[in-house]
Specification:
9 helices, 2 strands, 307 residues, mainly alpha
Length: 307
């Protein structure tokens, strides 16, 4: 027996009506919570792998997991989750809201226009811009907490990071890395939504209807996550190095690039690839499944015509 996520959001003409801003905002927030909870352990390992300089502390992804759990316990994999979890609702909500607005802009002159995966990718890029202002400080806090290993910790928690960082370098210190975050997230978000829609289009053609199974939604979300990080990992490595470096080491985010290339070569820009690839599939599969289920639940309570 197959359980379907029924796409019953259609106009009388048979054209699929896109989810409105409010529903995208709420659905994106719920999907984001699902994403963070399922993906945080992989993210912690990714940050620790990326932050290695000079003599490597970890031989690889598996070694990093083993040493982290052995030295700090299982819950160390969830270090720094408070900041993204608290911030994930507005971050993902604004991402999906921007995505909704991006689609609306393309439908302004022709409401019945069929949006292709390329159109969805363009809309997704706007969503990436929306969330950058919110995600940059959250990622700065998260990274500073995640690189703390054994010994006396400098920060006791997210609020302590904010207080100390603001005391040392003001609001500029908290927002450090905003440009490189935008450079990572705008194209990556476009790849994400474009791939998700392309994969759904393929499954719809195979099914002969607009109804997708839970498994198909999970697959589409997983492929979307991989597409997102195919673009995002090099700027993410640069962002991590920049955001966790001592104050004054780098004048700007791009200053990281020549030093990283000189010391580690091209391979250095792909540090953390294994945990990112492992995280991207379950985290984004859960995110999109959560998003679709939230839209379905909202449509059951308030019909499509109400928005």
């Amino acid at each position: 027996q197959h359980y379907y996520i029924t796409n019953n959001l259609r106009t009388r003409m048979g054209n699929k009506k896109e989810a409105g801003g409010v529903r995208s905002f709420v659905g994106g927030g719920f999907g984001g919570v699902c994403c963070v909870i399922s993906g945080q352990p992989f993210d912690t390992i990714k940050v620790r792998m990326q932050n290695q300089t000079g003599g490597a502390l970890y031989k690889g992804t598996t070694d990093c997991v083993v040493k982290t759990v052995k030295n700090e316990g299982l819950f160390a994999l969830y270090k720094g989750m408070a900041a993204p979890l608290v911030g994930v609702v507005p971050i993902f909500a604004f991402n999906f809201l921007g995505y909704s607005h991006g689609k609306s802009l393309q439908l302004m002159n022709n409401p019945n226009k069929h949006l292709t995966p390329i159109n969805h990718a363009l809309a997704g890029s706007l969503g990436g811009l929306y969330m950058t202002v919110l995600i940059a400080p959250g990622e700065r806090i998260k990274c500073l907490l995640q690189i703390q290993t054994t010994g006396k910790a400098k920060y006791s928690g997210p609020m302590d990071v904010i207080k100390q960082t603001y005391r040392e370098s003001g609001m500029r210190g908290i927002m450090r890395g905003t440009f490189i975050t935008a450079f990572r997230d705008m194209p990556a978000s476009g790849c994400y939504f474009g791939t998700y829609e392309a994969t759904k289009c393929y499954f719809r053609s195979q099914n002969g209807s607009d109804d997708l199974t839970f498994f198909q939604v999970l697959l589409a979300g997983g492929f979307a996550g991989w597409a997102n990080w195919a673009w995002a990992i090099p700027p993410d490595v640069v962002k991590t190095r920049y955001q966790t470096a001592p104050e004054g080491k780098y004048k700007r985010a791009l200053s990281v690039v020549p030093e990283l290339y000189a010391t580690e070569g091209v391979r250095g820009f792909f540090k953390g690839l294994a945990p990112i690839a492992l995280r991207a599939w379950p985290a984004n599969a859960c995110c999109m499944l959560g998003y679709e289920l939230a839209l379905k639940a909202m449509n059951a309570v308030v019909p499509l015509e109400e928005y």
